[in-house]
Amino acid sequence: MSIDLAxxxxxxxxxxxxxxxxxxxxxxDAKVAVVLANDAxxxxxxxxxxxxxxxxxxxxxxxxxxxxxxxxxxxLSSYTFxxxxxxxxxxxxxxxxxxxxxxxxxxxxxxxxxPSLLPAFPGKSAYEEAFKYGVKVSGITVHLVxxxxxxxxxxxxxxxxxxxxxxLETFMRRGLKVEHLxxxxxxxxxxxNGIKLQIRERESVEI
Length: 207
Prior knowledge:
By secondary structure, the chain is an alpha/beta fold. The chain has one domain (3-204): Rossmann fold, CATH 3.40.50.170. The protein has helices at 14-24, 43-50, 65-76, 95-98, 126-133, 168-193, and strands at 3-9, 30-37, 55-57, 83-86, 110-114, 137-144, 154-161, 203-204. Strands 3-2-1-4-5-6-7-8 form an eight-stranded mixed β-sheet, sandwiched between helices. The relative contact order is 0.16.
């Protein structure tokens, strides 16, 4: 079963591009119905246009969170989609917003990717915090969004090693490679099998 996605972005859009590319290559049985950005200068907007994906900008500057989310809901009303996919979206969605995407089974139809093995290192600086802490193994988590930050049912986790010679830059670069492989793969599992509400066994990859 194919699924339709609304992808939320704030910056460079590398995960959004990985998803769009997987759709175009037939690796992901899904369609990106719309890309929504909160910054008109986000590179992701240009990438969406290159893939002929509608891109909508709803800037948050000068707006309260409630006002901004109300404008997002209005902007999305013209599109039909099954899931919201957060791909580097640097805004926390409120429960009042999320309730519009509540599934009858009790979860929100909102999926996020986070650059750590949650529950370790939640928050926006996960790569930096993991590197500073000196982890030997880090990883990527794809999870459902709930009312807490970087929390919710885990759909998949994939580990990757930190090498002794790593700098923060090489450590992050290795993690991004995992992100770009894992996110489309998890979305394909959702497309094929729906949401499975259980923690899956972690996988490890050498990159």
